[in-house]
Amino acid sequence: MGKSIEERAVHYLQQELPYQTQILAPFALPAIASRMTYVDMESVPSEIASAKGLWEWLDQVDIRAIYVDRRYEVKSDVSPLVEGGLGQYFDVGFTADESTLRVYIPRPK
Predict the structure, then answer these.
(1) pLDDT of the chain along its 109 residues, tens only?
(2) 103: phi then psi, degrees, rounded to nearest 5
(3) CA 100 → CA 6, 57, 88, 103, distances in Å?
(4) pTM more than 0.90
(5) Where are the domains of the chain?
(6) Can you tell me whether residue 1 is helix, strand or coil?
(7) What's the DSSP call for residue 17?
């Protein structure tokens, strides 16, 4: 098993999600390494302004995980929406000790 936080996150995705599952990420490498399908964070519609709105959009477009690495934050409005919906719309699937990298899982409808 990988030792870096990135490798541990990739192993988590591989173990928890089916091959080619769509994941929202700030860059393609985590999706490629975990054999998932990359969806760019920039594709989140700018009119989404709530955790519920993000959750509904993710369900509509069949995205099953959100990879957030605070060191490479691209679309800065996504993380607060996810964190605002923790427990109601999203769960933390993976987190690094430093919590700079997290994988969030949208709750099922």
Answers:
(1) 568 999 999 999 999 999 999 999 999 999 999 999 999 999 999 999 999 999 999 999 999 999 998 887 666 789 899 999 999 999 999 998 777 899 999 999 8
(2) -115, 120
(3) 10, 25, 22, 10
(4) yes
(5) 5-106
(6) coil
(7) S
